[in-house]
Every structure is written in C-alpha cells, then in structure tokens.
Description:
Elements: H1 5-18, H2 26-35, H3 54-66, H4 72-75, H5 77-90, H6 93-105, E1 110-113, E2 129-133, E3 136-144, E4 154-160, E5 171-177, E6 183-188, E7 197-208, E8 212-213, H7 219-235, H8 244-256, H9 263-292, H10 301-324, H11 350-356, H12 367-378
The structure holds flavin-adenine dinucleotide.
Amino acid sequence: MALSETALEELLDGLLSDFPPSSTPPVEFLGAQFDRGLAFAHFPLGEGGLGASPSDQQHVLTRLAQVHAPSAFARNVIGYGMVAPTLVAHGTAQQKQRFLRPLFTGEEIWCQLFSEPGAGSDFAALATRAELDGDEWVVSGQKVWTTLAHESAYGLLIARTNPDVTKHKGLTAFLVDMHATGVDVRPLYQATGEAEFNECFFHEVRVPDHLRLGGVGEGWPVSITTLMNERVSIGGTVPPRGSGLIGEAMKIWQRKWATRHDAHAMAVRSELLQSWVRNEVARLTNWRASDLRRAGTPGPEGAVAKLAFAEENQRTSELCVDLLGAEGMLYGSDYPQVRPKESAMTSGDMRKAFIRMRANSIEGGTSEVMRNIIGERVLGLPGEPRIDKDVAWKDVPRS
Length: 399
Ligand SMILES: Cc1cc2nc3c(=O)[nH]c(=O)nc-3n(C[C@H](O)[C@H](O)[C@H](O)COP(=O)(O)OP(=O)(O)OC[C@H]3O[C@@H](n4cnc5c(N)ncnc54)[C@H](O)[C@@H]3O)c2cc1C
C-alpha cells in the first residue's frame, strides 16, 4: 500500500518538529522514529512500519538524510539491513517485539554468523552443530569473517541441526546472545590495518528454544531472506546523483586536473566521464529496482546491484588514487590496528577506500557467485552441476 504523499509528509514533519535531529540524542530520535512507523515504513504496523510501500520507505530515508537525522543503518549496518527484514519475515510476535526497536535505535548491535572456514560461497555446507537438550540448544563450532561481532549484543546464527539429510535441509537459524558463556570473539585484521571482522568460536553455547528463528530445519529459507536483503543493503542504495566515490573523484579532478588542457589531462577527463556515467547508470538501475521491489525477500535484482556496486567501487576508488598521482601512494594514517565501531564500507580517505573496496567483490557473496545467480535466475541459463544435491550432509566428502 502506498501512503498518500501528504500523510507521509505530515508524519515526517511531526517527527522532525517534536524531535529536532540537531538537539535530540540519536537513541531518542530513532526510538521516536520507530514508534511512529517511520523506521521501516514498508514493515507492518507495530513493527516499526506503516504497511507502506518500499518507495515510501525510500522517500523517508531521503527526507531524513536531507536534515542530517541520525542513521540507523550507519549505527547498525547488519542489524538494520539484514536482520530486521529476516525477523519480520520469520520471527515470532515475541521476537519482533523484543528485538526490532533496540536494533533500530542501535542500542543492540547485530552480527551475521553464517560463514565458516570451510563454508563461504557454499555456506549451506556449514558444520557448526546445534543439538537439542531439553528446551535449550547446545551450539559448538566456528564462524569467520563476522563483521562487528566485537560490538554485537546478538548474532543471527545458522547451525546444522540434522546431518542426516541434504545440506540445505538440515539447517536451523538462531538468535544468539554474543555475551553468553562459551562465545569467544577474536579480531581478524584486514589490509587497511583495521579489524572490522572477527572469528567467533562457540563452545557448547546454550541457546533457549524460544530464540530459534523459524522452524527446525528451516534455516535455509531464513538465510535466503537474509542474503537477498544483504545484497540490496550493500549494493541497492540510491545515493544522491554525483555523490559517494564518484563525487570524491570529481573533487580530486577539480583540485588537481581541472585547469590543465594537455593531452594527458584530456585522457584523464574522458576516463572520469566514463566512470561518472557508469556510476549514474548503477544509481538509476537501483532507483528503478527500489520502485519495483516489494517488501519481504527481494528478487535477483539484488545480485545485479551488488555486482555493479562492487565493480564500480573498485574501479572508481582506483581512478581516485590515479588522479591523486604521487599523493595516492601515501597511506592516510599511521596504519593503526583498531577494531572500528562501525563497518568501514566507505571511507573519506581515498587511499584507505581503495584498499577497503577490494573486499567489496567478496563480502555479501563474491562477484563470481553474483554472476552465477544472474546467469541462472535472470538469464535462465543452465544451472551449475551440483553433485552433493541429493547426498546426506554427513556423507559429503570434506577436508
Ligand atoms: C569484509 C568482509 C566482511 C564479511 N562479513 C561477513 C559477516 O559479517 N558474516 C558472514 O557470515 N560472512 C562475512 N563475510 C564472508 C563472505 O560472505 C565470504 O567471504 C564470501 O561469501 C566468500 O566465501 P569464502 O571467503 O569462503 O570464499 P570461497 O567460497 O572459498 O571462494 C573462493 C573463490 O572461489 C570462487 N567460487 C566459489 N564458489 C564458486 C562457484 N560456484 N562458481 C564460481 N566461483 C566460485 C569465489 O568467487 C572466490 O573467488 C565477509 C567477508 C568480507 C571480505
């Protein structure tokens, strides 16, 4: 349902006049935004939404960004973009009531506990076990590349609850307290010098059954909701025209190249223009996709957006470093080994951004995997051979 433009504007005006973003603490502002259904306008009433359309939600985001209102996405990137839609699609009423509001305000940060050392692209092959003991599950295993686990109150974990069936069927999803006994979070340092992500060890961690998300053995459909939303969350935003990395490239060009008219400068200008056009095409494609999108599990357009985002970010940050010339060879800081509080998907310093963007074609599904999805689900090409499709997980050879 699309809300009338006037009704939505009135709600936004009311929020902004009762809680001016410049003088209201972020948690209070975001709490009020949630209570008025403007957190996720496309979610149902009472769950931070108004039952409106995704394009209404896009309008809310644009209007609030214009007045520099606190961003729930920036505070809790995985909770906001991936866990919230999964909770709405698969959670019980009690789970939604308990978790959605503090997730949105950023009082409880979330992480995604999917990947394992032996299960990344093929994460349905995962080996972390959960076994029922009374009304609790006992979880043991290892997760890896867990972004912001060190800041998280809760994690969305997928574990194997039945090894005797095929890999996709034996999975179950859980909402795990990251401070529970037996959870051990250790930093993994990236090429930027920062440890955004972690390896997480689970030693007989007890998870009450009421924190199971979805049915036993239904971890795969739950994961698909998370992954489809992850792709849209990473690649599907619609930033203002000419902003982000291409905006940075334009600034560097203005500063270092704009007054030059020699052949080299003309070639650089042409490269910059091509990059601008590619970034604009990606932005408009995302805009169109967000208009067509329905609430719930997004379709394969998320794979198109994610692939374009990764490739353009890498090309544009590389162009920025080229435009910087010799300056581009200096790293912008003293390379501190820190554990950031927020995901550093984008960065003001183009030299650091250039290094960080290398991960864009891996995180949230690699570009090769995105191409497979586009080939199979958009273009209708034959699927990859899947030799373990009909074999019980416990009988699949693994190293
Ligand atoms: C910055 C960053 C943050 C991350 N955050 C999280 C997180 O918060 N939570 C989480 O669970 N995970 C996270 N990940 C993990 C990420 O989802 C995985 O790294 C990714 O899915 C790839 O898995 P892998 O690293 O095991 O590589 P592999 O799956 O082993 O792939 C290795 C190579 O083989 C290629 N390949 C694999 N399968 C195929 C195929 N079928 N066809 C063609 N090529 C193929 C891949 O494209 C890749 O080039 C993060 C990763 C990064 C880099």
